[in-house]
Every structure is written in C-alpha cells, then in structure tokens.
C-alpha cells in the first residue's frame, strides 16, 4: 500500500469512528412514532427528553414541520426554506420570502446535515433574491450557524454577500438619528398598533422600530466579527462603528424612562420624536441582540410588562401589543394579518430568545427567573396544538384555543418562527462558541429531575448532555454530564453550567469536502420547462409537477403529490426528461412514497412493485439493469430508493405496478434523481443547459458541448444562470464563454456575479452561424469569484446570443 493511500484510509477510519461513536440513552423510535420518514430524523436531529410533556412533544413536531419547508430548489443552489407549504403571490426567487429567513437559519442550524443551512445562507448572500422585501437578521443568523458548525471557511467566504445585503438597506437609514426606518408592514406586521392609527392601517407609516434596528445592529456586529476573522480590519472597524451608532440610536430615541419600554417612533409629522402610545411585543426584541446596556438596571423593568395581565400576558402566549391599548384587538377569529393582539409565533420566538438572553447575559430580575422563563416557553408549546395534536399556523387567539390565521392548504405547519432553537439554545442552554469550546447554561428549574440532549452535532463532534438528579433515569451517577463522541468528558454532581474544551473541529478539514458534488437532476422549481415531467395518468387531486417541486410533504392536506388515483391502468408510468440532448449518467431514483391508506384518508399506498426504465439512444424504453430496492419492501410514507447499473440517458421513467388486490393506487410526494454534478469533460466547465433558465430554451445540438445549448434568450428578462460555480480560492478568474451569434452584429449580455459585481459581455458574430459551436469560439471574461458556490447570471441585452457552456480557467 502506498503511503498516501494508507494515510487516506487511516484518516477516513478515524473520521468514521469519531462521527459514529456516540451514546445511546434515548429510545429514538419511541420519539418518532407517527412521523413519516423516521430515518431522516435519526440522521438529522438532536434527541431531547424533558419532564414537560408538551414542550417535548412540540419539539419533535417542530422538526417535522421544519422538514416540510426544506426545499431542494435548483442543482448547484440546493436547499432553500419556504414559509408557506405552497407558492404565494408575493414570494420571490424560488418562492422564498426573507421575512423569517433568520428564524429558518436558527432552526436549521441544529440539523446534522449542514448543507441545509449553508445552501440557504449562500442563497441569501449570492443569489440576488429579495433581501430587502422585509426586515431581516440573516447575517446574524449565518454567524450563529457558524458557531454550531465551526466551519470557518464557509462563513468567511460569505462576508462580501452579507455586507452587500447590509448596504441594501442604506436608502432606509436616517443619519441624523443613526437608525433605519420602515413601515410596520415591511417589518412583517400588518394591522399593528403602530399602523392602525395611520391613514394606511394595513401598511402603517414609516417609523423607527426597536425590532428592525436591533436586527441591523446584530447584523453589523457579526459582519465586524467575520471581517476580523478574515483579517479585514478596515471592514471590521467600519461595522463596529456602524453597530455602535445604531445601538446608540435605539437607546437614545426608542427607550422611554417613564413608560419603561422600547417603542416604535413615527418618522413623519413627528418633529418632537414622540414615541408610540402603545407597548408592542417588538419592544422586547433588543435583549435578544444585546442592545440594552447591561450596566444600567433601568432597562430590566421592561420585563414587568411581559408578565402583566394588562400588558402582554395572556393564556396563549404574549399578545402582539399590550392589552390595555385602545388599539388592542384580542377577538379576531379567522382573519389573517392582525398584529395588534393575536399571539404570534414569529414574535414569541424572538421574545423567548430575548428572555433567555436577559437571564444568561443580564441576570435575573424581580420578574425574570428560570421559573417564569419556563412559564413563557410552556405557554408557547401549549399554544402549538390543534385538535389535541401539535400544530403551528400563522397566529393564535390570545384567549381561546384557536388558530386564527390558519388557511386550509396554505398556512399549515407555517415556517415563520423558531421553537427548537428556543428549546436547545435557550431552555437547555447550548450556547455555541466561535472557538473550540462547548458551553451549556441550562435555564431549567430546580424541580426538574432530568433532561437529555443526544446526537447533537457540534463543531463536527457528537455531543450528549444529560442531567439526572438522582441517577435513576439514565442509570448513572447523580448530576450533569457531557459526553464527547461517546466518551464522558465532564461531570458535576449538581445541575450547573458546563464548559468543555474540544479537540480541533473536524469542520475545518471536512468542510473542504463539504461541496457535495451530487445534485438532484429531477428538481424543477418552476413547474414548467425542463426537467419536464409526464405521467400516463394523473389524479385530478394531484399534479405531476408537485412530484419534482423539491417539497416533501406526506400529508393528505396540505397536498403535495402525484398519484394515479382512479386510473384504470394496472401499471402507470411517471417520466422525467432532462431536456433535449441532455444525456446524464444516473444510477438511482429516490421515490418519496405517499400513502393515505396509512392514515385512513384515501386509497393511495405502496405500489406492488416499481420498475425503472431509461430511454435508449435508439429511442426505446429499456429496463435499467440490476435494479435493487432499498428497503426491499416498500414502506408507506417513506423513501424507496431504486439503485441500478449506471446508465446514460436523457429520460427516466418509473413504472408503478399498483396493488390491484387491495385496489390501491400509487403516489409519491417527490421523486429525486441524485447524480454527480456537474457532468462535464473538463473541470471548471459548466453547461448552460444545466443552469437555471428564465425565458430561454434548451436545444439539442450536435456540435454543442454536453449535447445541448441554450437559445432564444430574447425577452427583456431572459437569462441563463450558471449555478454552483465552485472555486476553492477567492480571486479574479478568466472565464471562457462558448457561444454562437449568427447575425453580423455584435451582441451583448449583462453579467451579474453573486449579486455583487456586474459587467457587460460582448459577443462578436460567429462564422458558423446559429446553433454551431466549436472549441475556438468563445469570449474571455475576467470574473471575480468567491470561495465556494458562485452564481453567474447572463441576462439578455443587445441582439442575440446562444450560450453553450462556460469554462473557469483554474
Ligand atoms: Ca413534492
Ligand atoms: Ca452545452
């Protein structure tokens, strides 16, 4: 054996051991009864046990609700997180909405598969999505994700995009006050106490808000930290100064000594800088981000209002504004978007973070202690039920067991808040660190006799923390214990905070391999174009497109599936066409089997058998060779993977042999075809036809690289986005663009790189005419690329260009 191979195997064995070694205290299966796809939970979530049944029950549910919103969008971009289970009119690129992106990242950071959060952070930092549609704390959340993963390379590579997002708000900055202004609507709050009293009660007037300004303070602070780690001291200093100014603005203008609270302040017709007449829940957000001065005890008085029955204290969570206010309305029963009374998970999540920060970073007060903290968290858990089962929608009545904003096939499992972050980060007190320490500061009452968190992935290590007051529950000695990769590394005889020093994070090494060069070739985020899907039969209650929309939702309602329900055929097929000329090497198909027989809601269940066929070069369907199914027998509402001998094909189809005996039909919520990506002859090459296209057409071409090219890039908004353009090093690269231009005039395209840099590319006429490509016909651009996945968008400008591929000269 040569030395290099030996070292590789030795290293792989070590890493394999480290990540597989773990404790096994929790009976995982018992926690996952009734959940679809239980293996996903075992692969991804920390398992928790606490004495409070509701808190624990909702904990597992909220991972399942979050899972429903993890959406694989586009190869090279990967995962995003949605807010609604279906597309809504005001969602933006790939149906995203930035309003709760911070919450999404804070929830995602607890998943063991770090790709979910990192793809999504990269998306906000580089895709040019609508980052200023609503207020946001994306940079802050991105940094909090780094604290969990320890992946320094990744967070440092995001600096430019995060700074760019931050500066996207410059036109809403008031230098005289050092604060940002926006409408309550743009702060995700329609019909609030600060909007009801304006001419436009839906949007409200512009104002300086404690919520948004605290978020911008938090964004500025982490950008300065990231810049410091990047040895970019001038950016670090710039953002330290900006953060300090915003913080001063909040403390000087938005705090009222007499009314002991932070308030909204109108921007217009308010020469005396008067504050709103009503306390709103957003006035508690500043603690979460460390805005109040810890040396000044006056600020802690704000918490009295959280526990005041005339303030925010109600049966089902804090009210969005204080109940004594003339603008308060706690009687809504079904209308959406009233944030002047309803209990609102978006805000409750923030407030619990803030309450934990008060306890951890500022100290107990006359009203804030671990018992009152638990009361608020418990109430939040108790709110998240419907018909006796854990559930979350948009908003809840403060007084009645009623989800008020709860539209059918719309706001189920609404992803607009945190909860698992409140349990893991606040209650159990896992406080992720930038250096090689693991710190836990539990905020649990002395009456609790136990808790455990197991399978926590932290800086590349498996961590278990358990507390067992008398040692009887986990068959151990009394006290709190920390296990690192299965080994006991810290113990105290009583409940206390713990700090453990860790070996160097594996994140640093493993992140170099974190680029997962497999992508899902079946995904179609648009519901039209390629990959094109078709079926021999589709139920009127289903859609072929929902089976490739990247969403995995096994529910009867909300519906997201293709089924053959009511088909007269014994065998129905479902096909995926990668596009004209787009032949790919594939070796597996993953079917997310839908069953409503399992839940007594319908007649769709596991098929009797599944066969995979591929289109041969001669145009015939042939069976893929050596098909094996995992598991061997289909499990309803779970994954069925069919592996086969690698084969080159443009089209794949699945034959579903339905269960005729039971008279059941076949269905799936999603089908994925994962394969190496990109599939190109030379490293650094990206095919235009593999990109994300807007108003452009994939065309087969014999002279085209990869078998096809993209043409008809004619409409004003027509564009070709090269996704997932990976480089290891940040610098300017030569990029060759292979194209054809069949008219005798120069054509141009506008090129945007990572939503930061733009340039105009010129394409002289080509001698061979349209649709003809060769190795000598290209233009060379100089393009600055960032470490990791880059986004390069070519947009139609003057005249026409057909694009074949780009080659990054590495
Ligand atoms: Ca789907
Ligand atoms: Ca091509």
Just give the CATH class of the largest domain: Mainly Alpha
Helical residue percent band: 10-25%
The main sheet orders its strands as 1-15-16-17-18
The dominant shape is globular
Q: Which stretches are poorly predicted, pLDDT < 50 over at least 5 residues?
A: 1-18, 507-514
- Estimate nothing, just give the exact number of structural domains: 4
Report the structural category: alpha+beta
Sheet with the most strands, sense and barrel status? 5 strands, antiparallel
Which fold name corresponds to the CATH topology of the largest domain?
Glycosyltransferase
Cα Rg? 27 Å
For the terminal residues, how far apart are their CA atoms?
Answer: 31 Å
SS field, number of helical segments: 17
CATH architecture of the largest domain: Alpha/alpha barrel
Are any ligands bound, and if so which?
A: calcium ion
Question: Would you tell me the overall average pLDDT?
Answer: 95
By DSSP, the count of extended strands is 42
- Give the percentage of residues in beta strands: 25-35%
